[in-house]
Amino acid sequence: MLQKREYKFWFCTGSQDLYGDEVLEHVAAHSKEMVEELNRSGALPYEVVWKPVLITSELIRRTFNEANTDESCAGVITWMHTFSPAKSWILGLSELRKPLLHLHTQYNEEIPYDAIDMDFMNENQAAHGDREYGHIVSRMRIDRKVMAGYWKDPVVREKIASWMTTAVGVLESSHIRVMRVADNMRNVAVTEGDKVEAEIKFGWEVDAYPINSIAESVKSVSESDVNALLDEYYATYDMILDGRDPDEFKKHVAVQARIELGFERFLEEKNYQAIVTHFGDLGALEQLPGLAIQRLMEKGYGFGAEGDWKVAAMVRLLKIMSDGKKDAKGTSMMEDYTYNLVRGKEGILQAHMLEVCPSIADGRISVRVKPLSMGDREDPARLVFTSKEGRGIATSLIDLGNRFRLIINTVECKKTEKPMPNLPVATNFWTPYPDLYTGAEAWILAGGAHHTAFTYDVTAEQMGDWAELMGIEAVFIDEHTTIPQLKRDLKLGELFYA
What number of other Cβ atoms are within 10 A of residue 421's Cβ? Predict the structure, then answer.
């Protein structure tokens, strides 16, 4: 299910013909070499494609419009090897619709002190050309990433790779379609939002289906398919019977297998990549989807509980952005539940009634069947585990009426001090930065929701860049946050978006 296009990034080098054809030949050779070595380095998640040196307004405009129409092009990397008169870039920049990285680098790492002359100076003047180009991009109020450093530096290559992930997130956002099964939880504010504005800003399509439409898909799943998936469950997970009869236990698990297959077929048939459910409207379903939703999330689908379509789309986005990352640790919907306020041991217990993605699990995963007061259905099966340790980010996309705001909180995930044998759900336990009390106050002041899209694998910087490219407000809560500064930032945001 976790499918995305084979994206590429165009490398566009700026120059002009003031210094003659020989210099232009050197510029082209240098930029080709840079592209070839970037691709050979293995540091970048996507291929870089060299484009002929851009020296005229007509060629720049044509190249950028070709980038717009090439569905495999996820972004444009620009670099001014020599001096490139910035007015030549105005028409092309005004029409570019792909993410833009301004790579401020130069071909040579060190000044050739013994050999440098005016010919070398004229040919190698990115310090000059990139400033001229940067001025016009700033004057045109175009959002872009500016990245300074030597192109062979591993740190610079890591930064390019990180930006590529963000750029793909921007492109993939327009392919996210969320299927709402039933509606939002009654009278809950934060799961609501302007779906039309979300489609304008992010490209998300959010559609509603009656619960029994998908229940029919679940009902149509064959017994043989259910049994085959059951065999997979029993081979993959530890079955914790909690005193239940083994056959009766298996019947409950089989219900989730049927739901998983029926939901996935319906999603594939209708071309949706994310789903929301609501325990208050389950129609003909025998159980609240638990294990089934957890498995779908693990396959790459986004999910939001109680009709929270914004979280569902964000979970899908984070899964796409982190796809293929080496040593990925996982992404999931999460919900704030309860605090540990013991000094020195502070944290927030994260969970949900059932639906936490097993991609974030640490160690073995078990299946348990326990009563659930919500939903008024039979006892649902669910995957139970604790999460990995390490740094991650919790994000909350909220609708403030006149704008969307993305809140990005850096958190430190850790193990709870003691086991919780009577809590039959998957859990995560984290302390928000800069500390529990400041982090919680900042989150509430910013209007953050109780549902989050959480990931170990996408950085706060990447999500901030994504928000900027989407034209929405980003609020960071991290080790540098203070409440007075946050309040000032929020007030400035109100002025900026008034």
Answer: 6
